[in-house]
Each structure stands twice: as C-alpha cells, then as structure tokens.
Amino acid sequence: MQNIFDSINRIFSFIGPLSDFLWEFPTNFEWYASVPLLGNFSFAIILLLGSGVYFSFRFGFMQVTHFIKGIKIMTEKRSVTTGISPLAAFLLSSAMRVGPGNIIGVTGAIAVGGPGALFWMWVSAFFGMAIAYIEGVLAQIFKEKKEDEFVGGLPFYGRKLLGNRAWIGVFLSLLYILYALCCLPAQGFNVVSSVGRMAEIVTGSTIAADSAFYYIVGTMIVIVTAMVTFGGIKKVSKWTDRMVPVMAGIYIVTVLVLIILNFKMIPYFFTAVFVGAFKTEAIFGGLFGTVLAQGVKRGLMSNEAGQGTITMSAAAADAKHPCEQGILASIGVFLDTMVICTLSGFVVVMAHCWDGPNAQSWVLMDKLPKFTESIATLTTGIAANAVITFLITLCFCLFAYTCLLGMISFSEIAANRIRKDRGFINGVRIVALFVAGFGILCNIAGLELGNLWAFSDLGNILIVFFNVPIVYIGAKYVLRATKHYKRNDGTPFTSEVIGRDDCHFWDEQAKKNRK
C-alpha cells in the first residue's frame, strides 16, 4: 500500500511548486522582491486587500452603515417554503467560515508576525466584509429555484456575468468541487484526531493512531455525514442551525473564562497588538507572512472573503431582497474574524510563550500544540487545564466537522450548475464522502499525500484569481441593487432594477406578488 501512496505523490509532485509560485508571484522575482515594502506583498495579497478597500469606499462602507440592519434581519422570525431562512443561511455560511483556522490560523499568524499580526488581521477582515457583501448579493441576484430549494453561488453568477456561457459555469463548478475534495481529507482527520484527543483527556491515557478506536470513530463519522448530506441542503442547515451556535457559544465562554482568570494581562494584550502592528516585522508578518498569505494559502483564512467559496449558502436563502443576504455575508466575516479569531488571539498573546522559558520548544511545535500550550500557561492547575483543553478541543472538532458538512453541501450546490438530476448529485456526494474517508484512513495509517493535499492551495489561489475579477464585473449590478434597497420605496426587485433581463427567479416572484 505504501507503494500506491508513493506513486500518487510522484504523479502530483508538480502541484506544490506551482501553487507556491502563484501564491508568491511576483515576490519570487528578485527585481520585485527588492522593491522596498511593496516587494514583500504578492499579487494575491494586493488583489484581495486592495479590492476590499476599493469596494468599501465605492459602496459607502455598507459593512458599517447596515450592520445593525443585518442583526435585525437575523433575529426576524420568518417561515419559508422554498430554500432556507436568511438566519439558517448565515449559520450555514458560518459553519464553513468558523473552522480550524480560527484557532491554528491565528496561532500561526502570531507565531510568525508577532501580536501586531492580529491588528492587520482585523484590518483585512474589515475591508474583506465589503467583498463578502458583493458576493452575497450576486449569489442572490442570480440564484435559481430547484424544487423546494435554491441553488446558486460562484458557478451561477460567474456564468451569467461572463456571457451566460455554459462551459464557464461548468468550469467554475469543477474548480470548486476540486478545491473542496482536496480540503476534505484534512478536515476529516481534524475531526477524528480531535475526538481521539478528547478521549485521551478523559481517560488520561494515550490512544495509538492505528488503534481500533480511530477506525471505529472514523467509520461513524463517515456514516453520520452520509446520513446528513444525503438529506440535502435543508437537512444540512438544520444541523448547522444547532451546531454553530453551540460551538461558537462554548468557545466564546471558555476563552472569556481564560481572559477573566488572567485579567491583569488584558492591558498587555492591547499594548502588544497595537504597538506591534506598526513595527516593520509585524507589518510584514501580519499582512504577508500570516493573515493573507499563509492564512489563505494554507486554507486557514476561514472568513474566505474574496474566494466565492461560501456564496452557495447565500444563494440558498429565501431573502426578501438580494441585499439582505449580502449584509449577512458581511456580518459572517465579522463573526469569524473580529470575534472568534480575536478570542484565539487573546489566548496566544496573553500566554506570551514565544519568549518565555520554553520559547525554543514552543516555536518548534505545530500550530495546535502551540495553542494548547498557551492554554496551559494561562490555567492555574492541572484540573482547570484539562477542562479548558477538553472544551477547546471539542470546539476544534465541531469547527472541523461543520467545515466538512459545508464543503460537501456546497459541492452539491455547485454540481447543480453541471447537471441537476439526482443520480449525478448523489455521485458527487459519494465521491466527497470517499475522499473524506480516504483522508481519515491515510492519516490514521501515518501516511501522507503532501503533493495531493497541495491541490487545496492551488484551488484556493485559482478561485481567488477567477472570482475577484468576476466580482468587479458584477459590482455595477450590486451597486444598482443597493441603491434600490436603500430607497425602500416598496417596488419589487426585478431584472429591470439592475438593467438586465435574466434574474428569472426575482422576475417570477414579482409577477406572483402582483396577482
């Protein structure tokens, strides 16, 4: 079996270097790298952050002016017959956004760029909220009805905005499915390994990675996931409706307890973050080395603004106006980064392990052990450490599992742009489950397919390079929709509002309401 894994690695040996080249371009050229300051930032970083700044100004900082409106939309009780409610869609998107990256991504960012990296993470997320708004509105404008569900997102609005060419929709669908399939193995392993870690905390003993325990847990995860995902987007959203508030609530309360126990370190946290943000090495580490480069490249920038990879959930909502879900998509970035990631930052910064007595060993640790070591530093006893570590590990497990569900569900939605028959959709589900199970098996067996996993990095950067230009093309339609939404004059949203004739769902909806 080892020979099979080695062969697969050799076949895909070109993927890693290609991915690295695209992510680092043009910093991998000496003439560009020698340019002061600018030479440290790749085109991908400039594209994402620059677009966020541009759209924030162009749309009048919708992420600020309509934030309270978004909260009201989420708390409004609605009954829907088609699709899912705006709140359910928000929770579904949060299931993907709030992932393992909220813990290990922040830890890696601070480890590389220092506490100031967290400040630049806030900055990038704030402007990223504007991109998320546009993505959410586009997903709603061009969504399609399929029986009692809505399907849409990047493959759908990409096709419409690029001349309504069928091959474009198929290509974007395949690109997302490939991206998801390459990310699923890591998420599957994160779930299994975190369950094992919780079992070790409870029993106080070490469980071998190749033991029957891990095989049983892995099998159960695949079975439960199949039962959920084969129920369609509505069933998945019912699970995420319950899981997201629970995992976010547990994580927030647990970290707040840590902060209260170490309240004397709170002034240090803010001083370290704001002072460190404007040191040269922190700027480079925060923007280039961690938040946007390392974070996005490693699939750890969980708010995913600019990638278009969470737009499927926005399209699934039965919204009254396309701009509603855009506002909620923007708030999703806020929850992910400004709340969850900031709490993770509190733990790492307040523990201050990078220059303590065990600094050398801490630096050599992987990201998750770095975080758990920070927890140990902040807790006052073995019992407290065990309880808090268990709760954080539980959250990490749920973060990974909701990502798993989201990737399979969004792959299903994307597949609808190719074919909508049940056989094809079930085939996509089966392949996704197989890949997740394969990843679990590989990791339990201690085998790695590094070059195959590098596909996720390549998929991420390709999606960014395709999605952001499409967002620019669609921005004028989102701007017209936004003006209509702000007028609030009682007129229905239709194709005519944005100067098109292909917003079929909204046109049909307006006709029904007039009858």
Brief summary:
The chain is an all-alpha fold and 515 residues long. It is 76% helix and 1% strand. Strands 1-2 form a two-stranded antiparallel ribbon.
Describe this structure as you would to a colleague.
The structure is a single chain. The chain is an all-alpha fold and 515 residues long. It has a single domain, classed as Amino acid/polyamine transporter I, CATH 1.20.1740. 76% of the residues lie in helices and 1% in strands. It has 25 helices and 2 strands. Strands 1-2 form a two-stranded antiparallel ribbon. A hairpin with a 2-residue loop joins strand 1 and strand 2. Helix 7 packs across helix 21. The longest helix has 38 residues. The chain is globular, with a radius of gyration of 22 Å. The N and C termini lie far apart (65 Å). About 4% of the residues have low confidence.
CATH class term? Mainly Alpha
- Pick out the low-confidence regions: 282-300
Overall average residue pLDDT: 79
The number of helical elements comes to 25
Report Rg.
22 Å
Strand content: under 5%
User: Would you tell me the structural class of the helices and strands?
Assistant: mainly alpha
- What topology, given as strand order, has the largest sheet? 1-2
Shape: globular
CATH architecture: Up-down Bundle
Spatial separation of the terminal alpha carbons? 65 Å
Which fold name fills CATH's third level, the topology?
Amino acid/polyamine transporter I
Give keywords.
Amino acid/polyamine transporter I; 25 helices
Topology:
Blueprint: H1 2-11, H2 15-24, H3 30-33, H4 43-58, H5 62-65, H6 67-75, H7 86-97, H8 101-113, H9 116-141, E1 144-146, E2 149-151, H10 154-161, H11 166-203, H12 212-229, H13 232-261, H14 266-277, H15 280-291, H16 294-297, H17 311-315, H18 322-351, H19 359-364, H20 367-378, H21 382-415, H22 422-444, H23 450-487, H24 495-498, H25 504-514
Antiparallel strand pairs: 1-2
